[in-house]
Design goal:
heterodimer; A: 351 residues; alpha+beta; 6-stranded mixed beta sheet; 5-stranded antiparallel beta sheet; 8 helices; B: 296 residues; MetI-like fold; two-stranded antiparallel sheet; 2 strands; 75% helix; globular
Chain lengths: 351, 296
C-alpha cells in the first residue's frame, strides 16, 4: 500500500509476476500504475505490505541495490555520455572489467540493432534509437526484472507498432521478465502474457489479454479494454437454461441471455457486447439469436474496416464493425438494421 | 526555423548596421569611460615615477621588472591562494545550498533565492565592519565559543588570513549559488534517478552525472567568485591587517600611499593578465566538457 498524503495511490495491490513473463499494468492515468513501478524500482517504499523479488524482501533496499532496471518513459539517457557509455553505465558502476563491459555492451547493442552507433551522443539519435539505447541500458545488466514505464508513449504511431513487435521479440529472445506500465490497451494486449487492470489504486483483474478482454470482471474493465456496447435492463424469468432480459428501453423486445448467476427476476443488470460479436442484417434474421432493432446513424470508413454507429435506444449508440471489402457492407446511414449475436458472446454485469 | 529557409535572410550588412546604431550609446560610453582610462593606465605602467610622485613620461619596462621582487611575488601568491581557497570553500558550501533551493517546491524558490541575495541590500563596507565586530578578540564569535566551552581562551581571528577568507567567502558566496542554482534547476531529476537505478552510489551519481551536467554553472560560479576575490581590497584591508596583503591592497598602496602610479599601473595589468588567464582556462575546460552535448 502506498499513500500520498491523504490520498491512497496504491491500495492493496497484490499479484505475482512469473519469471520470463511480460506482465503489463494497464490503467488510465492516475490509476496508481507509476506508483507501483516506482516502488518496484525502489524510488518509493510501500507504507504497508511487502515486495519480494526472487523471494527476497525489497523493503528498505535502495534502487542501486535492487536487481531491477527501469526504462524511463522519457528515456532519461545521460546527455553527456555516448551511446556506449550510456549502456555501459550500470556495468561500470558494478565494477565489471573493461573487457567484459565491451563484450556485453556489444551484445546488448546487437540485440537492439544499434551496433555501429556506439560513439553517437543521445541528442544525435532519433526517438526510436533513443528508445533502443534506453532498453539496452537496462537489459545489459541482466536484471531479474526489467521495468518499463510507458515504454513506447513518446514514439509516433508507425514506429510504435514496429517497436511493440520488436520489444516483444527481444523480451522472448533474452528471456526477460518485464513489468510494463501503460495506459494503451492495444499495446498491453499485443505485448503481454498477462495484464493487470488497475483503477483508482486497485487491481481489478489479472489475466491473459484474451481473458480480460473476453471475460472482463466488471464494466470498468470491459470499457477500458475496448468498445463495450451496453444496454441496461432487468433479468426476467428462466427460458430453459437461459434467462429472459428485458431492456429498459421500451421499444426493444426482450431477448434471452446466458448467465451463471441465479439472480432473482427483476434484478437490474447491464448487458455488454464487443463490436466484433455483433452481426448486422437488413432483414429480420431467421435465427433464435438474441436480437435488437436499430438505425444506422453514422458510417465510419477506417480503411480495412468500416465502423457503424447504430442507435438502439434514445441514448444508446452501439458500434459494430465489418470488413470493408465485403459485399454485405452496403449499409448506409439512416438504414434500419437488425443486430444479433450468439448467446455466449454477451456479458451480463450486475451492479 | 522555416521562415528563415523560405524568405531570404536579411543582408548581413544591413542588420549589423542597424544593431550598430542601437549599440552606439553603449559603445561610446564604454570607449570613453572604460577603454580610454584603461589605455591611460597601460601607458602609465610604462612611465616612471617622478621624485615627488608625479609621472615622468619616459618609456621604461622597469615597473614590470620590479615586480619580480620576492615581496611582490609573495603578495601575488597570497592573493592567488586566498582567491582559490575562497572559490573552493564557496563551491563546497554553495553546491548543496543551490541543489536544495533548485529542488525545493517551486513557490519557495524565489523566496530562498531572495534570502541568498539579501546581504546585497546593505553596503559591503558596512557588512565588513560587522564582521570585525564578530571576529575581534572580545567579539560575538569568541563570546559564543567561550560560553559553550569550546575554547578556553579567545581565538585570535581578526587580522589573520582566516578572517580574510571568511570575509571573502561571505561576500562572494551568492555569486557561486546563483549560477549553480540555474544549472541544477535545468538538470533533469530523472537522470539522477536513472543513475541510481543503474547501481550508482550517491557519490557516483554526484561525480558522474550531477557534476558533468552542471559544469557550466560550476565554471560560471567559480569565475564569478575567483575574479572579485583576487582583486578584492576592502576585505583584506579591514579584516586582514598588514600580514594578509593582497594585490588590491598593493595597488591601493602604490597609488595612494607611495604615490608610485607607474608601479601601481603595472601591478593592475599583471592582475588583469592573471584574471584573463584564469577565465580563459576555465572556459576552455567548459567548452571541452560541455562541447559534445551542445552540438546536435
Amino acid at each position: 500500500m502506498r499513500r500520498h498524503g491523504a490520498v491512497t495511490a496504491v491500495d492493496r495491490v497484490s499479484c505475482q509476476v512469473r519469471r520470463g513473463e511480460f506482465f503489463s499494468i494497464l490503467g488510465p492515468s492516475g490509476a496508481g500504475k507509476t506508483s507501483v513501478l516506482r516502488m518496484l524500482a525502489g524510488f518509493e517504499d510501500p507504507d504497508e505490505g511487502d515486495l519480494l523479488i526472487d523471494g527476497q524482501s525489497m523493503l528498505g533496499v535502495p534502487p542501486n541495490r535492487r536487481p531491477v532496471n527501469l526504462v524511463f518513459q522519457s528515456y532519461a539517457l545521460f546527455p553527456h555520455l555516448t551511446v556506449f557509455e550510456n549502456v555501459a553505465f550500470g556495468l561500470k558502476m558494478r565494477r565489471v572489467s573493461a573487457a567484459l563491459i565491451a563484450e556485453q555492451v556489444r551484445q546488448a547493442l546487437t540485440m537492439v540493432k544499434l551496433l555501429g552507433k556506439e560513439a553517437r551522443m543521445p541528442a544525435q539519435l532519433s526517438g526510436g534509437e533513443q528508445q533502443r539505447v534506453a532498453l539496452a541500458r537496462a537489459l545489459v545488466n541482466k536484471p531479474a526484472v526489467v521495468l518499463l514505464d510507458e515504454p513506447l508513449a513518446a514514439l509516433d504511431q508507425q514506429l510504435r507498432q514496429a517497436m511493440q513487435v520488436e520489444l516483444k521479440s527481444i523480451q522472448e529472445q533474452a528471456g526477460l521478465t518485464c513489468v510494463c506500465v501503460t495506459h494503451h490497451q492495444e499495446e498491453a494486449m499485443m505485448m503481454s502474457d498477462r495484464i493487470a487492470v488497475m483503477h483508482q489504486g486497485r487491481l481489478w483483474q489479472v489475466g491473459s489479454p484474451r481473458e480480460v478482454y473476453e471475460r472482463p470482471c466488471n464494466l470498468f474493465v470491459s470499457r477500458f479494454l475496448g468498445v463495450s456496447n451496453e444496454l441496461a435492463g432487468t433479468i426476467g424469468p428462466s427460458v430453459g437454461e437461459d434467462r429472459l432480459f428485458q431492456p429498459t428501453q421500451a421499444e426493444q423486445h426482450p431477448f434471452t441471455v446466458r448467465t451463471v448467476s441465479t439472480e432473482q427476476a427483476g434484478r437490474s443488470a447491464t448487458l455488454s457486447l464487443r463490436p466484433e460479436h455483433i452481426r448486422m442484417a437488413q432483414e429480420r434474421p431467421s435465427t433464435s439469436d438474441p436480437l435488437l432493432y436499430g438505425r444506422i446513424e453514422k458510417v465510419l470508413f477506417t480503411g480495412s474496416e468500416t465502423k457503424y454507429l447504430v442507435r438502439v435506444g434514445r441514448d444508446r449508440l452501439w458500434e459494430t464493425r465489418m470488413t470493408s471489402n465485403t459485399s454485405l457492407s452496403s449499409f448506409a446511414a439512416g438504414d434500419p438494421v437488425f443486430l444479433h449475436w450468439s448467446l455466449a458472446d454477451a456479458r451480463l454485469f450486475f451492479e | 526555423m522555416p521562415s528563415h529557409d523560405l524568405s531570404s535572410p536579411p543582408a548581413p550588412g544591413q542588420s549589423i548596421c542597424r544593431s550598430c546604431w542601437l549599440a552606439a550609446p553603449g559603445l561610446l560610453w564604454m570607449g570613453l569611460f572604460f577603454l580610454a582610462p584603461l589605455a591611460l593606465v597601460f601607458a602609465i605602467s610604462f612611465a616612471s615615477r617622478g621624485t615627488y610622485g608625479g609621472i615622468v613620461w619616459e618609456f621604461t619596462a622597469a615597473n614590470y621588472l620590479d615586480l619580480w621582487h620576492p615581496l611582490y611575488g609573495k603578495i601575488l601568491g597570497q592573493s592567488l591562494w586566498y582567491a582559490s581557497l575562497t572559490t573552493a570553500i564557496c563551491f563546497v558550501l554553495g553546491f548543496p545550498l543551490a541543489y536544495m533551493i533548485a529542488r525545493s517546491p517551486a513557490r519557495w524558490q524565489p523566496v530562498l533565492l531572495l534570502l541568498v541575495m539579501l546581504p546585497f541590500w546593505t553596503n559591503f563596507l558596512v557588512r565588513t565592519y560587522a564582521w570585525m565586530i564578530v571576529l575581534r578578540q572580545d567579539g560575538l564569535l569568541n563570546g559564543l565559543l567561550l560560553a559553550l566551552g569550546i575554547v578556553d581562551a579567545p581565538l585570535e581571528l581578526l587580522y589573520t588570513p582566516t578572517a580574510v577568507v571568511i570575509g571573502l567567502v561571505y561576500g562572494y558566496l551568492p555569486f557561486m549559488v546563483l549560477p549553480l542554482y540555474v544549472a541544477v534547476e535545468r538538470l533533469d531529476p530523472l537522470l539522477v534517478e536513472a543513475a541510481w537505478d543503474l547501481y550508482a552510489s550517491r557519490w557516483a551519481i554526484f561525480t558522474r552525472v550531477v557534476v558533468p551536467l552542471t559544469m557550466p554553472g560550476i565554471v560560471g560560479g567559480c569565475v564569478l567568485v575567483f575574479i572579485p576575490s583576487i582583486g578584492s581590497f576592502i576585505t583584506p584591508d579591514l579584516l586582514g591587517g598588514a600580514r594578509s596583503m593582497m594585490i588590491g591592497n598593493l595597488i591601493q598602496h602604490e597609488y595612494l600611499v607611495v604615490r608610485d602610479w607607474p608601479l601601481g599601473s603595472a601591478v593592475s595589468f599583471v592582475l588583469m593578465a592573471i584574471v584573463m588567464a584564469a577565465v580563459a582556462l576555465y572556459y576552455r575546460h567548459a567548452a571541452r566538457t560541455a562541447g559534445p552535448t551542445e552540438k546536435r
